[in-house]
Amino acid sequence: MYSALVSTEPVQSKPFLLNRKPQSYVLVYGDDKEKEASKLLWSTLSASDIKIENIDNIQDLKERISDSVLTFIVVGDDDSNVELCKMLSQEATLIGDIIGLAYDADTDRRIQLVAAGFDSIFNRHMAQSIDFKQIILKKIEKSRVRQTNRIMQEEYLRFRAALAASPDALIVFDNEGRIFFVSEHYKRAYPNIASRLVRGVPVMEAFEMARIEEGVTTDDPRYNLLKNFWESLSGQIEFESDIGRYKGRTWRMKASPLMDGQGTIVTTTDITSIEMRKREIEEASRQLAESLQKEQEASQLQKQFIGMVSHEFRTPLAIIDGHAQVILRRDDMDRESVQARCKTIRSAVSRLVQMMESILSSNLLKTGRIDPDPEDFDLAALIIELCEEQAELSKSHSIKHDITRITGQVRLDRKMMTLILTNLISNAVKFTKESPLITVTAATQDDAITIEVADNGIGIPEDELDKVFERYYRASTSNGIPGTGIGLNLVQQLLSLQGGRIEVKSALGQGTTFIINLRNVN
After folding, report:
1. What average pLDDT is seen over the chain?
2. Does the model's pTM come out above 0.85?
3. Which domains, and CATH codes, for the chain?
4. I need a surface site. Which of 202, 423, 428, 446 has the fewest CB within 10 A?
């Protein structure tokens, strides 16, 4: 496993992080008033890109020596600067040699000073030699190499510290597609291959190791997705893990190029919580949309029922009003006739109450939906009652019924069926003006119920038949005839709630037949 600050493994790659050329400083300490040492170095290094600085106190020397490629200390007859050299040579950040200038030192003195800690000692004669410049320049170049390595180490440490602070798993490739750095997060994700994810491993070799540990076979749907990503080291992908402790987690991989084409950094982020939150938001949005739709439907149904009330209540109110007027006008009416008309009035009132109950006692205003309430009742009797009521209101119409094929009682929502049949019969009356004949036919067989309401009225154009059940739609033949266009739509909805259906047949100028099919739940 790669753990050193700078790997010692032989890797064929270009410098990765060093983006700045370091400044080379040469320091001079202990120079005399005439600045003999400084002048010597200026004349020696005048043509090089080296900055020479003269230091006057020990504190400044301590602070600057770590950035110096060479430090020259003038050594006199006393040993004060020798002790200074011993102290400075212990600095951990020291990269440049400490060179002593002892102008009058003989060989023994020079050996003594080297033993004290100086890297080199030059006397006046040596410093004036033609080889002195080459010796100093070689020492500077070696110090520059050490300086560059130190800067790279410092940058690498900062690089590692920055990546270690990231919650994502990171892997960095150099510009030749080889591993440069692998974060601890990434190694923990792949413990079986962590020790093999070292600097210099080619990207596709790393991919093969990782996909095997992940359990991604070559026929896995994720294989080509992942393979293409690692081959190109570009873009972004998302995939799910299905083995080990990361099973069920969703990951996002993103490849981002480093500056100056130095390589690519791949981040792997656990987006499971993000995806869950996203799904929660989508679900909340869906539920909100559904609630809004239901609210709109409920509002529309309320409007529809308001219209229906005005539409449907006319019939029983007309019956009540008509019979009441007859009773008031005829003082000589016998008791039997009065009772018959009162019975009709009470029946009409009962119908009003039933319609009010079907509206007000339902959950429509709360849920936007009417729930059927099946009960056993005599369908034949209901048809007779509704036909007689319409016949009483429309003296000019012949309203007949054929109920001979109804056997026994049926189990349906009686209130809904009253609304359905009243709508259909009153519509037949309204749209049949000349020689009007309306026939209501009903039959039961096993669990099937069939009801037909036929008229010989104005009819409906063939190309409009599929539209007559749409809310507020009125056929072109209904011009001049009062209506709201909600009756047939209501009929269809009430039948649908009971599991039934309705169809229409019509011929223009010949009449219309509505056919109801229901299942007897009894």
Report:
1. 80
2. no
3. 25-160 (3.40.50.2300), 166-270 (3.30.450.20), 296-519 (3.30.565.10)
4. 446
Write out pLDDT tens, residues 112-171. Answer: 888 888 999 999 889 888 888 889 889 888 988 888 888 887 777 777 676 666 667 788
Integer Cα distance of 281 and 278 in angstroms? 5
Q: Which tokens belong to 419?
A: 């609304």
383-425 tens-digit pLDDT: 999 998 888 777 778 889 999 999 989 999 998 898 899 889 8
Selected residue with higher pLDDT from 61 and 17? 61
| CA distances from residue 192 to 88, 130, 353, 466 in whole angstroms, order as listed | 47, 62, 79, 68
In the block, residue with structure tokens 């005599």: 378
pLDDT of residue 327: 76
**8 Å CB contact between 215 and 242:** yes
Q: What DSSP state is assigned to residue 366?
A: H
User: What would the DSSP string read from start to end of 420-450?
Assistant: HHHHHHHHHHHT--SS-EEEEEEEEETTEEE
Q: Between the CA of residue 368 and those of 125, 202, 299, 312, 356, what are the distances in Å?
A: 110, 65, 8, 20, 16
Amino acid at 196: R
Strands across the sheet with 263-270, in order?
Answer: 179-182, 169-174, 263-270, 250-257, 235-240
Backbone angles phi, psi at 347, to 5 degrees: -65, -40
Name 425's Cβ contacts closer than 8 Å, sequence gap at least 6. Answer: 386, 387, 390, 399, 438, 440, 453
Alpha-carbon Rg for the chain in angstroms:
51
Residues 6+ apart with CB under 8 A from 437: 397, 398, 400, 455, 456
**At 154, which amino acid appears?**
E
Write the single-letter amino acid at 222: R
The per-residue pLDDT for range 468-504, each reduced to its tens digit, is: 888 777 777 776 565 556 778 888 888 998 999 999 9
